[in-house]
């Protein structure tokens, strides 16, 4: 079990690392390839959109060819695409190859979660998922630092070449240890459903991501894809609920524990990814830090998460994900509020202590909620369950990032310190909503356990 878990971590780590690593080098890439800022921004945007495109297919592909084969194929495609990105001679080819890389990366995390869920069962799922969570949380934290160090002494191509040794090791170990899964039973692909969600989800994520990248501006270039994306997702959901064999089985939401766990993950994703946008800007704009210093300043956030995740997994297996996620979400609120009062001259030691504590709180909130959702479904439902949860996490992350970007863009002209304080109040509000939904998850789990206890004769 642990060997399989550690192998799956390779895929989750490299996929998450790449999303934050390359962003550091966009300026260098644009200069070397003679591309404008608008053109080079698509190196990042195309990757994020491709991640969203491939997610809905993960469940169907896992049932079609076996989830282990899907994971191996996606990891191999990601590694090859990384090598080709380093060889790209112009910005157009680099963007195309980033799409291929993103399509593969979008399959790695949900496929890996499905493999682990089917391999270990619900009793030990918390401890195993916490190991996967270490990779998912640590990679974005160290990505900017690693990227900055690489660019200090090497060319931008190494932002992609660094994936090759990790990919080679992961594929070799995966070939030996990852179970291939059972192919078959997927049925015909629901092309209409895929068209709806395959266009709706990327348009929705793109629109919200554009808000963040464009400094919070909202115009037709945001509103049109946002409306089309939302409409596509709504029609997909209504259609899937009525179909006998949909692309994604949304009838899983009839399971109250799964519904509470996934909705909790949606709002936790908003609070978590909103903070990922806000904290780097806090150090760069308000405190005048460069990219490397900003990355080093945020390491304590990832370190706090890594330290506590094993404990969070053990507590989840012992007491249930609801109560652990509730405690973590409340602690997230308590560790976010102080930032709403801190100014540009805040004590660096205090900042690092708060970031470390917030990382610990995130470890107790995010992974237990998702684990509770996965543990509540049957083994054959896991491919759809992991896909749905990852989609909601991605939507929540895009909403959280857009929320923080809009607040900052509106208030920065009035003063950076005031703008960041208000933005942190909004982030506190998102964390409070996540805590409320985690409370609902805890109540549902407690009710289900009460129903399961036999009444004495």
UniProtKB/TrEMBL annotation:
The keyword Manganese does not apply. Pfam families: MFS_1. PROSITE patterns: MFS. Keywords: Cell membrane, Membrane, Transmembrane, Transmembrane helix, Transport. The keyword Transmembrane applies. GO terms for cellular component: plasma membrane. InterPro entries: EmrB-like, MFS, MFS_dom, MFS_trans_sf. It is a multi-pass membrane protein. This is Putative transporter. It comes from Amycolatopsis methanolica 239. The gene is emrB.
């Amino acid at each position: 079990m642990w060997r399989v878990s550690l192998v799956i971590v390779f895929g989750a780590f490299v996929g998450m690392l790449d999303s934050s690593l390359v962003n550091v080098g966009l300026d260098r890439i644009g200069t070397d390839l003679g591309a404008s800022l608008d053109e080079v921004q698509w190196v990042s945007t195309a990757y994020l959109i491709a991640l969203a495109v491939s997610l809905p297919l993960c469940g169907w592909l896992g049932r079609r060819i076996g989830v282990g084969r899907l994971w191996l194929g996606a990891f191999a495609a990601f590694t090859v695409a990384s090598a080709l990105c380093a060889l790209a001679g112009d910005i157009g080819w680099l963007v195309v190859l980033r799409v291929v890389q993103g399509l593969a990366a979008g399959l790695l995390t949900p496929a890996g979660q499905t493999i682990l869920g089917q391999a270990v069962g619900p009793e030990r799922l918390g401890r195993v998922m916490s190991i996967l969570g270490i990779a998912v949380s640590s990679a974005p934290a160290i990505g900017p630092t690693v990227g900055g160090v690489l660019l200090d002494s090497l060319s931008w191509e190494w932002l992609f070449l660094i994936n090759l040794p990790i990919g080679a090791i992961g594929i070799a170990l995966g070939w030996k240890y990852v179970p291939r899964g059972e192919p078959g039973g997927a049925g015909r692909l629901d092309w209409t459903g895929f068209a709806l969600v395959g266009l709706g989800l990327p348009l929705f994520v793109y629109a919200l991501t554009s808000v963040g990248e464009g400094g919070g501006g909202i115009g037709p270039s945001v509103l049109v894809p946002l409306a089309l994306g939302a409409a596509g997702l709504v029609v997909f959901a209504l259609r899937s609920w009525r179909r006998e064999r949909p692309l994604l089985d949304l009838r899983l939401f009839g399971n109250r524990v799964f519904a509470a766990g996934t909705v909790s993950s949606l709002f936790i994703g908003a609070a978590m990814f909103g903070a990922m946008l806000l904290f780097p800007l806090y150090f760069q704009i308000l405190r005048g830090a460069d990219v490397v210093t900003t990355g080093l300043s945020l390491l304590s956030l990832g370190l706090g998460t890594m330290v506590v995740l094993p404990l969070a997994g053990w507590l989840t297996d012992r007491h249930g994900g609801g109560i652990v996620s509730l405690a973590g979400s409340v602690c997230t609120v308590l560790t976010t509020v102080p930032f709403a009062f801190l100014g540009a001259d805040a004590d660096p030691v205090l900042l690092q202590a708060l970031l470390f504590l917030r990382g610990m709180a995130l470890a107790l909130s995010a992974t237990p909620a998702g684990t509770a959702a996965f543990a509540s479904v049957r083994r054959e439902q896991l491919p759809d369950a992991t896909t749905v949860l990852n989609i909601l996490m991605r939507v929540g992350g895009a909403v959280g990032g857009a929320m923080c970007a809009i607040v900052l863009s509106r208030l920065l002209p009035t003063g950076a310190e005031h703008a960041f304080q208000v933005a942190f109040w909004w982030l506190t509000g998102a964390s409070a909503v996540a805590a409320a939904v985690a409370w609902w998850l805890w109540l549902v789990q407690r009710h289900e356990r009460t129903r399961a206890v036999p009444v004495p004769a």
